[in-house]
Structure formats: structure tokens, C-alpha cells
Amino acid sequence: MLNSWKIYSKSRVVFHQGLKPYSPFQASGYRLLQHLSKGHYADTDVYWAHAALSQDPQTAVALITDKHVFLLEKCRFWGGWDIQWAVRVDDIISIPVVADQRLIITVRQVVNLYIYNTYCGNSCIE
């Protein structure tokens, strides 16, 4: 009597969006996010987009995630990326505007300064 073998084929579950082809551009953006602050932002944020801000893409890059907008500059000594500034998406209060080849982002002003003043002997808000 012959052994009966069942053949199973592996199938991939395809959601409504389908499979996306590999994009080296998006992969470089994910890599930027992974290397920021030793992966701190990769644990909390989801990559959306990035763009070089000069002719040389190795000098300044804008990186956008679901929670932050970053301006990154290449570190000349170590070769990594330095965060020049970061803005939380929740703090952006209007649609960014392009004027004279500049991107203007209006941000909510955070007034949260608690300074210990030795003159009055307690915490003061200035």
C-alpha cells in the first residue's frame, strides 16, 4: 500500500492594498528614522516621507513621520545625522506655506517655563 502524501501550498495573505514593490527611496527614509537618536523615534513614530533640501542630499534632509517633522543635517565627524530641530505634528496649527523658496510652518507656542528663582525663594513662571 502506498503512502498518501498531502501537498500544501504556501499562500500569502493579500489585503485590500495589495503588495507594494520595493522602493529604495522609502527604504532610505526608514533607515534615517531607525538611526535617529539610536532608534528612539523608530519605536514611537511611523515614517511618512523625506526630502533632500539641497542639491547635495547628504547635507540637509526633512523627515516627516506621523508624529514629528525633523530637519536633519549630516554630522561631519561621525557620519550620522544630527537633529537640527523637531516639531510635533500636533503643534502645527496651519497648513505650511512656501514663500520665496522657504517653507513656513506655523507652530503653537509652548509656554511651559518653570524657573527656580533664588530671589523669591520659590518656583516662578516668567
Automatic annotation (TrEMBL):
Taxonomy, superkingdom: Eukaryota
Pfam families from the UniProt entry: VPS13_C
Residues in Intermembrane lipid transfer protein VPS13-like C-terminal domain copies: 16-109
InterPro entries for the chain: VPS13-like_C
Name of the protein in its database record: Intermembrane lipid transfer protein VPS13-like C-terminal domain-containing protein
Species name: Cordylochernes scorpioides
